């Protein structure tokens, strides 16, 4: 009886702590959402109110009627999708080779990928600017995709390497004994069981490119400007246009939420992959 009560109390404490943690993460987004549905006059009031007195969608109307934001959204989407696709095309086979065919050079390769994650992005801004300028790719979608891919590939490589560590080598050996080549074993046996890990890696890579600000600021201007830059430039005669800015930010967060919900099953499977071994 006492043990049951103790377990019940422990469950209540854990659930309460989890609720507080979730609310601490959700509160800024809820405040962002509440600000986006306030009239312009209420956004600037002092002291600010958390909940709107009157619900208004004029901020969303103004944002959707602008000519710059839809084009910036399209640029961000194209760049994020191309970056994710290119990063996975490079990182997935590279991570498989690095983990299943251990050599000193593959270990150094993974170590080099880890070191590149430690380099501040701001220190690479000027070299990337000069490189893309010399290639004629400055202020272009392909140039920005290459810049984002250079930052996303090390992350995708390390994530996929961690997932491939949980794949038994016996699977490839069994496929080879059945007549498959190494490439066929990788394509027909290994990849189908790695959908969860690939989904998790794709999501993190997509978010990395979708939220990227520095390279987009340095390497683009009017023609290929992405949504984070456009949102940061919302101004009014009184300063920052908080109402329009928060409405645009809410709209900008929707694709990530939709992608996360769409890949929820694969993400959960990927995060728990290899957690239980028989």
TrEMBL record:
Segments passing through the bilayer: 12-32, 72-96, 108-129, 141-164, 185-207, 240-263
Coiled-coil segments on the chain, per record: none
Record carries keyword Transmembrane helix: yes
CDD domains in UniProt: TM_PBP2
Annotated InterPro entries: BP-dep_ABC_trans_perm, MetI-like, MetI-like_sf
GO cellular component term of the entry, any: plasma membrane
UniProt domain ABC transmembrane type-1: residue ranges: 73-263
Locations listed in the record: Cell membrane
Signal peptide: none
Alphabetical GO biological process terms: transmembrane transport
Entry keyword set: Cell membrane, Membrane, Sugar transport, Transmembrane, Transmembrane helix, Transport
Topological category with respect to the lipid bilayer: Multi-pass membrane protein
Family according to the record: Belongs to the binding-protein-dependent transport system permease family.
Protein name (Swiss-Prot/TrEMBL): Multiple sugar transport system permease protein
Organism listed in the record: Rhizobium aethiopicum
């Amino acid at each position: 009886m006492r043990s049951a009560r103790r377990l019940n109390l422990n469950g209540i404490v854990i659930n309460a702590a989890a609720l507080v943690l979730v609310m601490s993460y959700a509160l800024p987004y809820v405040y962002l959402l509440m600000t986006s549905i306030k009239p312009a006059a209420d956004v600037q009031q002092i002291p600010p109110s958390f909940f709107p007195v009157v619900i208004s969608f004029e901020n969303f109307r103004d944002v959707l009627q602008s000519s710059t934001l839809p084009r910036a959204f399209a640029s961000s989407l194209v760049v994020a999708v191309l970056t994710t696709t290119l990063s996975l095309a490079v990182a997935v086979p590279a991570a498989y080779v690095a983990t299943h065919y251990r050599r000193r050079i593959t270990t150094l390769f993974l170590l080099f990928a880890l070191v590149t994650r430690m380099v501040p992005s701001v220190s690479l801004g000027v070299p990337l600017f000069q490189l893309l300028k010399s290639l004629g790719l400055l202020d272009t979608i392909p140039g920005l995709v290459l810049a984002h891919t250079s930052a996303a590939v090390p992350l995708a490589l390390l994530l996929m390497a961690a997932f491939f560590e949980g794949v038994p080598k016996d699977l490839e050996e069994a496929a080879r004994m059945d007549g498959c080549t190494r490439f066929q074993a990788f394509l027909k046996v290994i990849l189908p069981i790695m959908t969860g890990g690939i989904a998790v890696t794709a999501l993190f890579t997509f978010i990395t490119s979708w939220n990227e600000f520095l390279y987009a600021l340095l390497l683009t201007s009017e023609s290929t400007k992405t949504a984070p830059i456009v949102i940061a430039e919302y101004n009014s005669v009184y300063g920052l246009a908080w109402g329009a800015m928060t409405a645009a930010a809410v709209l900008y967060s929707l694709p990530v939420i939709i992608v996360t919900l769409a890949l929820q099953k694969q993400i959960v499977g990927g995060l728990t992959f290899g957690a239980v071994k028989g």
